[in-house]
Structures are given as C-alpha cells and as structure tokens.
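Reopening this ticket.

The earlier resolution said the output was attached, but the attachment link was broken on my side. Pasting everything inline this time so it's all in one place.
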Amino acid sequence: MRSFRRHPLLLPALLCALVVLVARPTEAMGVGDGDGIGSGISARVAQLYEDAALATEQYEAGRQEAGARRAQAEQAQALLDGERREIAGLHEDLGRMARAQYRTGGGLPVAAQLILADSPDALMRSQHVLTQANLALAGSVSRSRRAEARFAADEAKAKAAWQALEKRNMELAAVKDTIERKLEEARGQLQGQAEASVAAGSCRGSVRLQQPTRNLTQPWVAPVETYELSAGFGSGGDRWANRHTGQDFAVPIGTPVRAVGAGRVVSVSCGGAFGIEIVIQHPGGYYTQYAHLAAVAVDEGERVDTGQWIGQSGTTGNSTGPHLHFEVRVTPQMGSAVDPVPWLAARGVPLA
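Inline output:
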C-alpha cells in the first residue's frame, strides 16, 4: 500500500472543491459625463478589484481549510500506519500458530493421533489443546481479515480526502488567476485612456462608481485602504525640481482612491506634472490633493464624504510607476504643502 504523504497540498497558485467562486458582473453601475467606453472600463476595473478581494478572501479561507484537512490527513495516515502494523502482527501470529500446530502434531489425522497417544487422558488433552489452537487460529484469521478490510476502507477515505483537497485548491487558483488576468488587462486599458486624456489636456469626465458600504465612525481615513508607502514628504530626487511635496502610496493602477475627509471638490484637472488630479477643500482651511490618477469619480463643486471613492489610481503625468501622490495644503495651489503623515496622524490616521 502506498503512503499518502506523497500527495502534496496544492495551496497556491486562487482563493478554496466543492464550491467555485464565480466572478460577479463587472458592468458599470452608472456613468457620469465621460464617454461610454471610458466609463465602462473604469467601472469594470473597480468591480474587478472587488471581485479580486472576494476571491482572495475565499482563497485564504481555502488555505485555512487546507491546513485543517492536512491535519485530518495526517491523522488518517497515522491510523493507516497503526493498522498496517496491526495486520503485520496478526500475520506473524498466524504463522507462529501454524508452526506450533505442525510441531505438536496438529496436522496429524485423528486415527494417527489415537495410535500414537500414550493414554486416553493424553489423547483428550491433546484434542483439547488442538481445539483451542484451532479456535485461536480461526479468531486470528477473522481479526486479520477485518483489519485488512478496515485498512482498505480507511485508505480509500484518505485518498479521497487528498484528491478533494487538491481539486478544491486547483479550482480556487484557477478562479483567482482568471480574475487577476482580467484585472490586469482592464488596468492597461484604463491607463491608456487616461494617458490619452492627459495628452489632450481634457479629462473625460467623472465615472460614477458603485460606492462600497461604508461603516466609518472616524472623520478621517487614509486615501487608499491597502498600500505601501514610497517617496515621503521632503525627500529629494531627480523627479522633482525641489523637494517632494507629498506622500506617495504605491498601489496598482485602478485602485479606488478615497477622500480622506468630508469636503468639497474645488478642482479636477488633467495634464501637467501631476497628470489627472483632484483637490478637495476640508473644513478648517486645509486642502488635499490626489494626483497621477487614471480616472475620476467626482465633479468640480461636488461635496464628498469621508471614505467616498473619488477616483482610481494610475501613473499619469510625471510618474515613474503606479502610485497615488497625496498632498495636504493650506491653499488649493501647489507650493503650500505640509507633511501629510503627521497631519493624518494628528487626526487619528497613523500610516504604516
């Protein structure tokens, strides 16, 4: 019997086969002033981001399930190993009994035993011993057969468990790969349209995205949910004439960008070093800027709430790669920026 330790868990490659995630429709939930194609791509990217997040969540759940199944499979393997040792012991007992019967004359015919017996009592004792030996042998044969049947059933269950686990993880990986492939293709289309808008110096107009359910209790949030901090405020480099005036968040193209707080959109523009950008005025005299976008989801003069999706990140303008350039200013224009990291931290939003 082969061991099932040779069946590895197929954890990566997406997210769990019992159930296969089906990507939800990714059509635009609504369009603004932009052209139909542009609006469709923007909304499709946003929807694919949600689908990818759901797929990832299910994939992680599948990984946890795989861990639980691994433990079950290891227990099954331990059971099989024990049953294998039990069967080997039973076979050894059977051989020992058979050899003992042969040595004590268990294989002689009854007539021969009558002739060779020293006395009737000796014959009776011999017959009793032989009967007991035969009963023990029959019991051992029966136990051996039951153990072998149980072993075969348990081995089949262990094999089925491994196969189900492998199938589930392969299905999840395929679903995740499909969504991510579609997302990457849509990102490229979105960025291409954004670059065309910047080159023409004319924004396509806002793309109305389906807003996620927000259960925010705090008045301020980070401009993107998941990110890596890259260039910080005041850092130097060949990309800037002086010092860096904001905080960069490294995120893929099409990542939903959020208003860090409630306020009013004072400008939406395309072209220049910042590419597609949005500036929002907040109570208290501060302004926030969101630059290098691939698409916008608000119009100038519109009021926004904390956490509302206002656009999608990109790499338009003077940008060396996909990221969000975020600034905090004391006026709507550049040149009045303050360090956004301590500014957000003072409002209960530490960046890490």
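Reporter confirms the inline version is readable. The first helix runs from residue 36 to 103. DSSP finds four helices and ten strands in the chain.
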